[in-house]
Amino acid sequence: MGEGTTGTGTTGAETAGTGADGTGADGTARGLRCELLGPLRALRDGVEIPLGPPKQRAVLAVLLLQEGRSISYDGLVEAVWGGAPPVHVRNLVQKYVSGLRRALGDGAELAWTGSGYRLTGVRADDLLRRRALVDEARAARDAGDLRRAGELARRAEALWRGEFAEGLQAPYLAAERLRWAEKRLTVLEARLAGEIELGRSFEYVHELVRLVAAHPLRERLVELLMLALCRAGRPADALTAYEAARRRLAEAMGADPGPALRSLHARILRQDPALLPTPPVAVG
Predict the structure, then answer these.
(1) How far, CA to CA in Å, does 186 sit from each of 119, 149, 189, 222?
(2) Which pLDDT band, with edges at 50, 70 and 90, does 217 fall under?
(3) Are β-strands 41-44 and 47-48 bridged in parallel, bridged antiparallel, or unpaired?
(4) What pLDDT, on a 0 to 100 scale, did the predictor assign at position 25?
(5) How confident is the model over 76-119, as pLDDT tens digits?
(6) Strands 109-112, 47-48: parallel, antiparallel or unpaired by DSSP?
(7) Helix, strand or coil for residue 82?
(8) What's the pLDDT band for 30 if we cut at 50, 70, 90?
(9) What is the pLDDT of residues 44-64, one digit of tens each?
(10) CA separation for the pair 64, 250 (Å, rounded)
(11) Strand boundaries in the chain, DSSP class E
């Protein structure tokens, strides 16, 4: 499940104290947080801050993703406007940087370092919190505690409010949106695999049917659906799901299912006892 570098259950924003200058012990502005797992928003003491026009918000999102590192002027322009920026882009960058300084206020610092723009004192708190939860979930799974791993993964999923940086149009953010969608699905697949191992197949068949419909060429989801159906005592439906996936892959890509899916299909055909329904793992 893991994907990040932090390994604690809380982020600095949750544990840091507050300094006399109005910043936390971790260098973030007191009461100021930003979120990117959905539409970009900034909140001070729980109250949302107006962040200006869409391109100004896109500049902030790009800066937040640098996590305190500087980004060159050319890099920022490329990230926000791509290879065909408007004629007066330099004026726009200066305007948006000034607008963000006013919006974020004291504590957050958006500075020109001589080689680029650097944003400090504020960060994407939901990304950091999610990273910590996913790392904890991976550690719990590695330790054999599937129940705790599933709970941590659910808490990570609950941080999402929509698509990553939803609604913001910028080449860099479009690429990040795809990357984070993949990360989200990977964690979801790991959680569902754990639930099936815990004997909860029946509870998650409908969710897997919905996910396969939304991502029809994603073989891991089909595999989990087939496994859940078998464990729920429905091997014929599992074979039907395989055949439907095989047809979709052939029509869309001219390809056969991958080794994992073919192997599960063969196990179902030979009535592998390991695929028989299993009772749920008792709570205790």
Answers:
(1) 30, 14, 5, 13
(2) very high
(3) antiparallel
(4) 42
(5) 999 999 999 999 999 999 999 999 999 999 889 999 999 999 99
(6) unpaired
(7) coil
(8) low
(9) 989 999 999 999 999 999 999
(10) 41
(11) 32-35, 41-44, 47-48, 109-112, 117-120
Instruction: Please give the radius of gyration of the chain, using alpha carbons only, rounded to the nearest integer.
Output: 23
SS3 for 10-59 is CCHHHHCCECCCCEECCCCECCEEEECCCCCEEEECCEECCCCCHHHHHH
Q: Is 107 left (phi over 0), alpha (psi -120 to 50) or beta?
A: left
Give the three-class secondary structure for 63.
helix
Q: Which tokens in the block code for residue 22? A: 């109005």
Q: Which residues of 219-245 are buried (b: 16+ CB within 10 A; e: fewer)?
A: bbbbbbbbbbbbbbebbebbbebbeeb
- Structure tokens of 13? 């924003």
